[in-house]
């Protein structure tokens, strides 16, 4: 499969929120860090963040490139054009997400990315609402997006008009067994636009994850799986009495070795903690 | 002759076991500074003393026991020695380390290395006490296990002697026979077969002198500090559970070689988990000489011939190779297989890897051995006994998987899991792609101790499933660190206590030798040693195709727990190897530019 990258749009004006959404606190991390981390886990290509020129962003993984919007306050289509343009050559497709999706699940990202492989756009439609800012685009659409901007047609909906769009309704989305298990309510597309929405979602308990400790971390009969609620790697470690330092490593769902305390966790994740030294 | 630097004698003793004669080989200070000791100095000795193209089992082939400037100091984990020779398994350089009082007594014979050449006219035991060399009748020890032979020689010679011996496999020329002392093994590459080919069962050494570091007070203070740090969290894994702690963790990461690398997750791993076994079983903890870590964990094993109880050293590599690699999950059978390898004197990694290959051959109908099936621990024991006795499949399996697959043919070469003839240790290259490169290019072959690139894969700093430039950098850096640690010599399990390793190692060496060593010089030394090994291999017939992985790893994909595919394409491996060559200053075919 050609590489699928991702674009996270962080440059919105956050008018209704009254504060930059990217920097909103989220269980010890930030909204942007969370969305970036979840998207990274769902794609196999590079991830870029598009911000307004000069915008301060919270700390992000070093593997993420940060791009400035080419035009000030031009709306999400400008960010899409910038992000897709930057990924051309490195990825044939890209999942585009806004920064305000704290319940996004990597399984959703994977499902949308997979559906986008044989279309210009894979567009989720949930509860009758189209989700162009949680969709997958062919990166070659960057040129068309710029044309639309030049024609003063700056809404993402215009980009869909001439494109080969694959609509993903609830039935199609939940036909993916992994997504159906991880996010049956399709909460992945729940946006945060107002302080009230933020407060309500922030009050929800963090996702349930299963933690395993190995080696000396599990000696003294303290081994086996344990289910805890944790939105980040640090929180998962803390929940089982561990501190993330240079002697400790983790793997989420048996994949990469990680030690970033802010690494976001999602519902159903398995987290393995082990000693950093694997010699033997 | 000028006085030797601190920690050195400035000479090696070359012993011709054919007639018991010996000569002192002066070791110039610059040679010592350039190669340090252990594996580095051993490579230099082998290059100097080994006739080009020599048959590893010929009388002329040297077998070097090499010490280091740190041996005999109070620095923790420094009582180690390297054994270096041309390998009968790979036909290239092999070097293995062991830790024991043999290192201290061997060095305090007054030599930085003892080199055996020639062939005795009957089974013999070689003794070294100062410059005095003896070649004694070894017929009483011939045919006995290494531990029995060691005890017998000690009983004959009296107190104060330390004895390194091979088992019966070494006598029979099993190409992965080990050299042992005090239950510790110089395990990889068939060094026991090299000793056995000289008609020598054992080398016994007796200390006669002392050696002083340049700054005794400084060394004492450094030793105290290092000892304290070696008891911290960086070594907790080794101290508390031993390396077997890798089994369950590696299983969770899809890096546990299973059924001859046909999978990387073993359903029987929980039965072999040290987290459980250490609770349920009687375990004795012990340590090598001069070691504050104490990584050794001895498990109750099968009874001795006389009915007495027996403890078996269990480590991750034993368990991985004789357990999951062969599909065996019964801990009693895995412990019994480890004990049998100790008795025969064979490398558990090569033994398990070769048996796993044979199991796959048998299941595919390429070998007429319907008793040999994955998952059957008794079959593993039978195969080991046949390797030891030379009966049944023994002569074939004693060749190792590369040579055996060349005999069997029929496509079995594709799943013979070796590099340069050396069987892969318990690290899955498709899910550890820095390690894939490290094993492909390392001089010794598929090896974890000389490469160490798994450190990069498990660092959290790169995507271990997507080999690229970062993996190359990680593999080069790990190989450099290993080259220095294996030449100083310090135990790898200590590495976590060094936050700035080259700087801190330079300090230790300055205190011992008196040299004005810097971290940069030590980095250059590391590269020199790595290239010296490559140069030796080139002289002995290394070909570019030797820096490669078996076809299985490049054509079969794995899936990790997240659902991601782990695949290593030939193009990706080639790209990493080319970048490695460039980083090492080699040409496109892996040869030095100058």
From TrEMBL, chain A:
InterPro entries: MobA-like_NTP_Trfase (IPR025877), Molybde_CF_guanTrfase (IPR013482), Nucleotide-diphossugar_trans (IPR029044)
Superkingdom of source: Bacteria
Keyword line: Cytoplasm, GTP-binding, Magnesium, Metal-binding, Molybdenum cofactor biosynthesis, Nucleotide-binding, Transferase
MobA-like NTP transferase domain ranges (all copies): 6-155
GO molecular function, one term: nucleotidyltransferase activity
UniProt-listed CDD domains: MobA (cd02503)
GO biological process terms on file: Mo-molybdopterin cofactor biosynthetic process
Claim: Cell division is one of the keywords in the record: no
Classification via PANTHER family: MOLYBDENUM COFACTOR GUANYLYLTRANSFERASE
Protein name, UniProt field: Molybdopterin-guanine dinucleotide biosynthesis protein MobA
Provenance organism: uncultured Frankineae bacterium
């Amino acid at each position: 499969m050609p590489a699928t990258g991702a674009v996270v749009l962080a440059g919105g004006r956050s008018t209704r929120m009254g504060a930059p959404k990217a920097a909103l606190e989220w269980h010890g991390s930030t909204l942007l860090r969370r969305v970036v981390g979840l998207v990274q886990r769902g794609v196999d290509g590079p991830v870029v963040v598009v911000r307004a020129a000069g915008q301060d962003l919270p700390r992000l993984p070093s593997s993420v490139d940060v791009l400035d919007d080419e035009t000030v306050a031009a709306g999400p289509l400008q960010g899409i054009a910038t992000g897709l343009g930057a990924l051309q050559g490195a990825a044939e497709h890209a999942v585009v997400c806004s920064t305000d999706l704290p319940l996004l699940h990597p399984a959703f990202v994977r499902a949308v990315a997979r559906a986008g492989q044989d279309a210009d756009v894979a567009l989720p439609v949930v509860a009758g609402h189209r989700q162009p800012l949680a969709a997958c685009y062919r990166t070659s659409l960057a040129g068309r997006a710029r044309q639309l901007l030049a024609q003063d047609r700056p809404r993402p909906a215009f980009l869909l008009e001439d494109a080969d769009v694959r609509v993903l309704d609830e039935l199609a989305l939940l036909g993916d067994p992994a997504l159906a298990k991880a996010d049956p309510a399709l909460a992945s597309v729940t946006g945060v636009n107002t302080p009230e929405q933020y407060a309500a979602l922030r009050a929800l308990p963090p996702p349930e994850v299963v933690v395993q400790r190995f080696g000396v971390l599990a000696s003294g009969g303290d081994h086996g799986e344990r289910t805890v609620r944790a939105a980040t790697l640090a929180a998962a470690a803390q929940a089982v009495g561990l501190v993330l330092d240079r002697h400790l490593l983790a793997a989420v769902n048996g994949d990469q070795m990680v030690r970033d305390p802010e690494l976001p966790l999602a519902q159903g994740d398995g987290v393995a903690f082990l000693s950093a030294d694997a010699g033997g | 002759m000028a006085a030797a630097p601190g920690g050195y004698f400035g000479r090696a003793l070359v012993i011709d076991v054919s007639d018991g004669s010996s000569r002192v080989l002066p070791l110039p200070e610059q040679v010592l500074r350039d190669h340090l000791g252990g594996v580095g100095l051993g490579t230099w000795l082998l290059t100097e003393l080994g006739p080009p193209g020599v048959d590893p089992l010929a009388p002329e082939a040297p077998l070097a026991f090499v010490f280091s400037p740190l041996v005999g100091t109070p620095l923790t984990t420094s009582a180690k020695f390297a054994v270096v020779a041309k390998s009968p398994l790979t036909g290239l350089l092999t070097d293995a380390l062991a830790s024991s009082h043999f290192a201290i007594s061997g060095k305090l014979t007054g030599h930085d290395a003892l080199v055996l050449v020639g062939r005795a006219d009957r089974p013999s035991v070689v003794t070294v006490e100062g410059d005095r060399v003896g070649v004694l009748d070894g017929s009483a020890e011939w045919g006995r296990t290494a531990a029995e032979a060691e005890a017998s020689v000690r009983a004959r010679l009296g107190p104060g002697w330390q004895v390194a011996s091979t088992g019966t496999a070494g006598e029979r020329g099993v190409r992965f026979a080990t050299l042992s002392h005090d239950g510790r093994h110089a395990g990889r590459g068939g060094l026991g077969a090299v000793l056995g080919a000289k008609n020598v069962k054992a080398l016994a050494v007796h200390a006669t002198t002392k050696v002083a570091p340049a700054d005794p007070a400084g060394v004492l203070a450094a030793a105290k500090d290092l000892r304290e740090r070696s008891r911290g969290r960086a070594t907790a894994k080794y101290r508390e559970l031993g390396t077997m702690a890798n089994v369950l963790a590696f299983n969770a990461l899809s890096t546990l070689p299973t059924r001859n690398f046909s999978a990387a997750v073993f359903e029987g791993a929980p039965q072999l988990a040290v987290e459980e076994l250490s609770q349920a079983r009687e375990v004795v903890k012990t340590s090598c000489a001069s070691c504050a870590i104490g990584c050794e964990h001895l498990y109750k094993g099968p009874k001795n011939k006389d009915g007495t109880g027996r403890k078996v050293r269990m480590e991750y590599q034993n368990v991985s190779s004789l357990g999951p690699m062969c599909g065996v999950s019964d801990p009693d059978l895995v412990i019994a297989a480890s004990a049998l390898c100790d008795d025969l004197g064979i490398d558990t990694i090569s033994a398990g890897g070769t048996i796993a290959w044979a199991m796959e051959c048998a299941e595919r109908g390429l070998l007429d051995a319907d008793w040999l099936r994955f998952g059957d621990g008794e079959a593993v024991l039978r195969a080991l006994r046949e390797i030891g006795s030379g009966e049944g499949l023994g002569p074939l399996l004693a060749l190792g998987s590369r040579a055996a697959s060349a005999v069997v043919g029929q496509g079995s070469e594709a799943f013979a899991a070796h590099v340069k003839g050396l069987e892969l240790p318990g690290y899955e290259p498709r899910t550890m792609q820095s390690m894939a490169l490290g094993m492909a290019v390392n001089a010794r072959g598929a090896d974890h101790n000389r490469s160490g690139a798994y450190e990069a894969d498990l660092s959290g700093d790169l995507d271990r499933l997507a080999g690229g430039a970062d993996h190359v950098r990680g593999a080069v850096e790990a190989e450099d660190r290993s080259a220095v640690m294996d030449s100083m010599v310090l135990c790898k399990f200590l590495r976590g206590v060094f936050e700035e390793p080259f700087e801190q190692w330079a300090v230790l060496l300055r205190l011992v030798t008196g040299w004005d060593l810097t971290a940069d010089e030590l980095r250059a030394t590391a590269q020199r040693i790595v290239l010296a090994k490559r140069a030796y291999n080139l002289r002995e017939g290394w070909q570019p195709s030797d820096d490669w992985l078996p076809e299985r790893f490049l054509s079969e994909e794995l899936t990790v727990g997240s659902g991601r595919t782990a695949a290593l394409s030939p193009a990706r491996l080639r790209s990493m190897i080319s970048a490695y060559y460039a980083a090492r200053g080699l040409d496109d075919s892996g040869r030095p530019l100058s």
